Amino acid sequence: MTKILVTGATGFIGNHLINRLLGLKHQVVATSIDPLQKAKSFSWFEKVKYISQDLNEKLPDYFTHFGEPDTVIHLAWEGLPNYKASFHLERNLPSNYNFLKNLLENGLKNLAVLGTCFEYGMQEGRLNEEMPVNPENPYALAKDKLRKQLQELQREYDFQLKWFRLFYVYGKGQNPNSLLSSLDQALEDGDEEFNMSPGDQVRDFISVTEAVDIIARISLLDKDCGIVNCCSGNPVTVKEMVSKTLKEKGKSIKLNLGHYPYSDLEPFSFWGDRKKMDSLLG
């Protein structure tokens, strides 16, 4: 049985990932900055070893502290969805690097880290892992720098790295301000219309159920995988995604298109290439 440490355990992705790992019969050590009381509210709490821990704290040996896990899946990252804040570079980047380096220098051999599709910057079309990146917001810049730092550490420490560039995940428990959570709330409130952007921008939406299955299975491969897109590979407009969701729920609501402007954080039309991901999944 593989022992896996999941950081950011009480977050949206962490919650679903832990349930998937337990379903695959793995031993899970879960950690987050949240107090024990919050962790107890999750269905997996009695099935894992939970350790409340601020990863900004400097400990001499995090690897031993967390029970010498075979694999670490690092999801923790503070301050989202405030992508433009400078603390991603000033605080999160050095803190995450120091934590992960501590694990590696004390014996960790298999590390998986959650990156972001924002690392690609404002490039449009189908995006693959071989493309040069050009991150343009502090969050994406920090993630890209962390990846490069970890790849440099591979010159010093013998470990396998999986770096997941996550696209647009949706599902139960996501941020209430996200597109589909906002739609659900509007339906629940009985609103006559749903305010949204023009909706013709193209995105890559992937369900959290599929995303965590990909992350779990690739994280546990006995090989160095490097960068891997975690995506559906299907280009869909935002308006099409909203309409599809309404149809699946058997609901209707007037779409107030153009109420919000296009986001300046992302290109107009982009989606992930899933060839490498599918190859790794077999």
Describe the structure.
The protein is of the alpha/beta class and 282 residues long. It is 34% helix and 22% strand. The protein has 9 helices and 14 strands. It has helices at 12-23, 36-39, 62-65, 87-105, 138-153, 179-188, 208-219, 238-249, 275-281, and strands spanning 3-7, 27-32, 49-52, 71-74, 110-116, 125-127, 160-166, 168-170, 193-195, 202-207, 226-230, 235-237, 254-256, 270-272. It has a 7-stranded parallel beta sheet, sandwiched between helices. A 3-stranded mixed beta sheet has the order 8-10-12. Strands 6-14 form a two-stranded parallel ribbon. The longest helix is centred in the middle third of the chain and has 19 residues, at 87-105. The model has no long low-confidence stretch (mean pLDDT 97).
Task: Report the total helices.
Answer: 9
Helix content: 25-40%
First-to-last CA distance? 22 Å
Largest β-sheet summary = 7 strands, parallel
Q: Tell me the overall shape.
A: globular
Order of helices and strands: EHEHEHEHEEHEEHEEHEEHEEH
Radius of gyration: 19 Å
The total strand number stands at 14
Strand content: 15-25%
> Widest sheet: strand order?
3-2-1-4-5-7-11
**Mean pLDDT across every amino acid position:** 97
Low-confidence stretches: none
Class inferred from helices and paired strands: alpha/beta
